[in-house]
Specification:
Rossmann fold; Isopropylmalate Dehydrogenase; 41% helix; 2 domains; alpha/beta; 5-stranded parallel sheet; elongated
Length: 299
Amino acid sequence: MLRTLKEIIDRARRRGKKRLAVAAANETEVLRAVDEARQMGLIDGVFLGRGQEILASCKVARIDPNNFAIIDIETPALAAKECCRMVRHGEADFMMKGSIRTGDFMKAILDKQEGLNCDSLLSHVAIFEIPGFDRLLFVTDAAINIAPILSEKIQIIQNAVNLACNLGYDCPKVACLAAVEVINPEKMPDTVESAALSIMSLRGQIRNCIIDGPLALDVAINRKAAQTKGLKSPVAGYADLLMAPEIVSANVLYKSLTCLANAKAAAIVTGAIAPVVLTSRADDHETKLLSIAMGVAGI
């Protein structure tokens, strides 16, 4: 069990230095985060995009561009495409979004011929260090899959579990979130899918984890709440990973933790042939740095 995001940075250091390709790298906060990751010995950086704009952004960010390879490419979309090619051919270990629209960035990654997709569902996994909470908490999927069906939820959970295992977890405990702990087929069909996912984990259809659901958030993470409700579950009160039923609840949970609970966060896209660092323009410098470390540690 991991308790702090610093432990992820430590794991990333033990992985050895990786090569990070940044698409449309003319974004100041991204450049600062990449440079700090370089100074920490986590990565070597390759900046792709309009060369003059990257150099100007380096000047604003007060970083030395000579510490990085810069590849001059005319458009952000072409920069993302070239990042994918570099990862596919082993010239980079993973890639990161810079000053490019998320849609254009993901389009390059999802391209069946030239992207990073390997016929699996891509999904977003975030990790939070929450003041007063005794462990790191994984949340999926707050950014990619809008209203996943059962077969997609299986892949979303497996992606997150695979990442957790890469980060040192033997058998993470997964809570499928709902508003209640009882199955309500007519009014809350997600509760039925949560129960199905639980049975599937018992039968080995979802590997290397223990799943239970439906579970309300308080029951999933708080042992006293689980005891008060009389729930007998190997997950209730001990969840490492929260699987939200759809993107709205996951996104609200993500932003509630960061905006209201002062949680530190890191996030990547999983399911591709290499980790993808996909941060928001609103994410702070620390989140970008921690997400890079998460990408290194998750390789």
